[in-house]
């Protein structure tokens, strides 16, 4: 029987690669739902090709366009935030791939879990904001969360067959981004264009900036805590500029397992969608002689403060990571718009953490309020700075 997949954020970097995987394996996957926020043209093109049961365009301004373009197909067309959130509940969906960016992923993921859908999780912000709530719900509703993030997929792959064996620690690899080895004086003047040039991966704008500030690795440390039930002290980060070793697990006997390969997100995407089976693929293969040295170095936490901040809030718990995530989303957006400098991103996060009230055991509505209050505060700070 085919596996029915809903892709939230189908027009993005992960979404389009997921459709490539599904297009290459039509006997295995079928597309139930596609959603996008703004890119109506691509959503229409994808729907006409993959014939999902339903599509949702987030921005209602594009509804008429999508509706009329798909009128000859038997596809339900919806728009708006409520449809984005509830479309995942449809009976014929097996797995929901959360490939939208940012905090917006939280509510649809909650709805999908409550409807009993397995989650293929690319939207790491959901676990950063509300990891305790999400993993609790997943246990309660008996759904699996399969990681799509390449590092977490690597760890997940290393853990297959290790049931019952305790993890001593995990080691997340980081490329170091475009500014590896640079100091703060240099970073003070880097441009949006420089920050958007990632050495090894081609991704959406937000995660690319997060990779340049090492916030992405910080978010991934928090994501790993929730996915694999670890303490902060069990999660190490090592900079590995070649991005060939995707991450490692160290067990109690001292043995370390790594998962390796050329960087290609299609591999973790298809592993998450088809676990435990591996699908045959034609992706380019890694060749050791092309890489005479794989190198590893310590991350520079004094220069790239966001990674240090992530460890701090991981220890702190409660709504602290939600504050960091919201401040970071506002700061990254402002940096992309040229309103603030690269180093202002960390400053804005630190100031938000100092200002927004800490809640040790937040409810869902506490997360909503924390997110809103932090966004408001960080946006006001930016107004003052410009
Ligand atoms: P992207 O910007 O390329 O795509 C984002 C998608 O989300 C688009 O389809 C867009 O229409 C949709 N979207 C944007 N805002 C939305 C909103 N408010 N509500 C609903 N949908 C919205 O982003 P991406 O690079 O594909 O990343 C998606 C997620 O996957 C992020 O959480 C990112 O951290 C994670 N991730 C990405 C990669 C990668 O290689 N791109 C790797 C690991 C993890
Ligand atoms: Mg990653």
TrEMBL record:
E.C. no: 1.1.1.267
Residue span, 1-deoxy-D-xylulose 5-phosphate reductoisomerase C-terminal domain: 145-228
Binding residues annotated for Mn(2+), in chain numbering: 149, 151, 220
Keyword NADP (UniProt): yes
Catalytic activity: 2-C-methyl-D-erythritol 4-phosphate + NADP(+) = 1-deoxy-D-xylulose 5-phosphate + NADPH + H(+)
Listed cofactors: Mg(2+); Mn(2+)
Pfam families: DXP_redisom_C, DXP_reductoisom, DXPR_C
Domain (1-deoxy-D-xylulose 5-phosphate reductoisomerase N-terminal) ranges: 5-131
Classification via SUPFAM superfamilies: 1-deoxy-D-xylulose-5-phosphate reductoisomerase, C-terminal domain, Glyceraldehyde-3-phosphate dehydrogenase-like, C-terminal domain, NAD(P)-binding Rossmann-fold domains
HAMAP family: DXP_reductoisom
Family statement drawn from the similarity comment of this UniProt entry: Belongs to the DXR family.
Name used for this protein in its record: 1-deoxy-D-xylulose 5-phosphate reductoisomerase
Species of the source: Dyadobacter fanqingshengii
